[in-house]
Specification:
The structure holds 2 protein chains of 2 kinds. By secondary structure, chain A is mainly α. Helices cover 77% and strands 0% of the residues of chain A. The longest helix of chain A has 34 residues. By secondary structure, chain B is mostly helical. Chain B has one domain. The two termini of chain B are 27 Å apart. The chains are: A mainly alpha, B mainly alpha. Chains A and B meet through helix 4 and helix 5 of A and helix 8 and helix 9 of B.
């Protein structure tokens, strides 16, 4: 019956070498997609009729926003799995994902400001999406702060998992409340979806960049995961062998 | 239900025998609200416009003050462990403690807010709406805050960390609570905001004691 051992890679000992083999692969893919994406977005994609050259920041901005949301879901998923099944590696994965997610949220906010200044004439508006992205960044900061304030790693994992799950329940509530707040207070002065249907090459550039961001996030999270594994399991026999 | 009431009664009694803690939070609320006109200027039209937001943000911060105390003393002297071992479900006892927190830190704000609202020149209808929105919203603040208090129990830098964890989760409550008062002042109906606030409260009453219990069990391990 037991054809596949689903938990083979759930132990740090067997996942550590596998992660070591996967990281170079994801770095190469990230570089390839990144090079192709940058080439398309700078040399192939046409100049936008309304926004000029400035619109090209979206090739970084949109993938970063996507990643910031996807990583939060992934983080909550692994944290929840760690809480439910008591698997060490899942909680370590959640811990490894958080800084990358926070980075993506910050990058999305900063590039958004760079885009907003020439397009809207202002660095920041209290638009629903901007505000909820900012709150998502706060949620990442809370998760990282809570985990680093607790010395016992098992307790840090479980407390972080509960916080991540509370956060996941709250993200849609926060998003819709901010959206309704925004429409009630200032009307639809600025609409992000106003842009005319995108040229094919623009979409291609954005998708390539999104793939590059995915690959980068996976590579760097695995790298961080390997470091966390070594740190937490430093008293065990396999770490001594792995480092030889 | 008896267990819930007993836990609530115990916390209220304890607080009433040491009134300073509760009164400090209430005076904090009054002082923060009074600082805004001093910082912004005394124009009545502007003050009337910012009143709902100022009162709501101050209420948010004032309930935050009482949260670190919610479980801390019981955690230190072992009462919390006895609660976890007791035959009545821990979630019920925790719900009782949440109720006590609301009675001590939330209800006084509901009563005081209209008086402070008068200083900002709110009319009678808006004052009533302010009280009503706080009546619906402050229990929500206690429920959400208790989850943060349980997660940060016995943790380094607990108080500041608690604020960082809890304040983002308070945002929907702030939006609908202050929004209800603003809508009432503007002559629009506030029913939508109040319904959403009540919906959030119903959700939190169901989930928050449960999540808080899970977090407390981790702290007690």
């Amino acid at each position: 019956m037991n054809l596949i051992n689903w938990f083979r890679y759930a132990s740090p000992q067997s996942f550590y070498p596998l992660a070591g083999r996967m990281i170079p692969l994801f770095w190469i893919l990230a570089l390839l997609f990144g090079a192709a994406g940058l080439w398309v977005s700078f040399f192939v994609a046409p100049t936008d009729a309304q926004q000029g050259e400035g619109y090209r920041i979206i090739f970084v901005h949109v993938p970063a926003s996507w990643m910031s949301m996807v990583i939060y879901l992934a983080m909550a998923f692994w944290a929840g799995l760690g809480l439910a099944l008591n698997t060490r590696l899942s909680s370590m994965m959640a811990q490894a994902l958080a800084p990358t997610g926070a980075l993506m949220a910050a990058l999305s906010l900063i590039t958004g400001a760079f885009w907003g200044k020439p397009m809207w004439g202002t660095w920041w508006v209290w638009d629903a999406r901007l505000t909820s992205e900012l709150i998502l960044f706060f949620l990442y900061v809370g998760f990282i702060a809570l985990q680093s304030a607790i010395d016992d790693p098992r307790r840090a994992d479980k407390a972080g998992a509960i916080l991540a799950l509370i956060g996941v329940v709250n993200v849609p509530i926060i998003y819709f409340s901010v959206k309704w707040w925004n429409t009630l207070h200032q009307g639809s002065s600025i609409n992000l979806t106003r842009a005319p249907s995108m040229a094919q090459t623009m979409l291609l550039g954005m998708l390539l960049m999104a793939l590059a961001f995915w690959m980068y996030s996976i590579a760097v999270s695995l790298l961080r995961l390997r470091a966390i594994m070594l740190e937490r399991e430093r008293h065990s026999e396999w770490v001594k062998h792995a480092l030889e | 239900m008896n267990a819930l009431m007993a836990a609530a009664r115990r916390d209220v009694l304890l607080a009433l025998r040491r009134r300073a803690d509760v009164l400090t939070a209430i005076f904090f609320f009054v002082m923060v609200v009074s600082l805004f006109p001093l910082g912004i200027g005394p124009e009545p039209a502007l003050l009337k416009k910012i009143a709902p937001g100022v009162l709501w943000v101050a209420a948010l911060l004032a309930t935050l003050l009482g949260l670190p105390r919610l479980f801390h003393a019981d955690y230190l002297d072992g009462t919390l462990e006895q609660m976890a071992l007791s035959p009545s479900p821990l979630a019920l006892l925790i719900a009782g403690k949440m109720l006590a927190h609301w009675l001590l830190c939330g209800l006084p704000l509901v009563i005081l807010a209209p008086v402070l609202g008068l200083q900002f020149g709110l009319d009678a209808a808006s004052l009533g709406m302010l009280s009503f929105s706080l009546l619906l919203g402050t229990p929500l603040l206690s429920l959400i805050g208790a989850m943060g208090a349980a997660l940060t129990l016995g943790v380094r830098g607990g108080g500041v960390l608690l604020a960082v964890l809890v304040l983002p989760l308070y945002i929907p409550t702030l939006i609908f609570g202050a929004g209800a008062v603003a809508a009432e002042s503007a002559g629009l109906g506030a029913e939508g905001h109040l319904s959403l606030l009540a919906a959030l409260l119903a959700l939190a009453v169901f989930f928050a004691p449960w999540a808080t219990t899970a977090a407390l069990r981790i702290a007690l391990e």
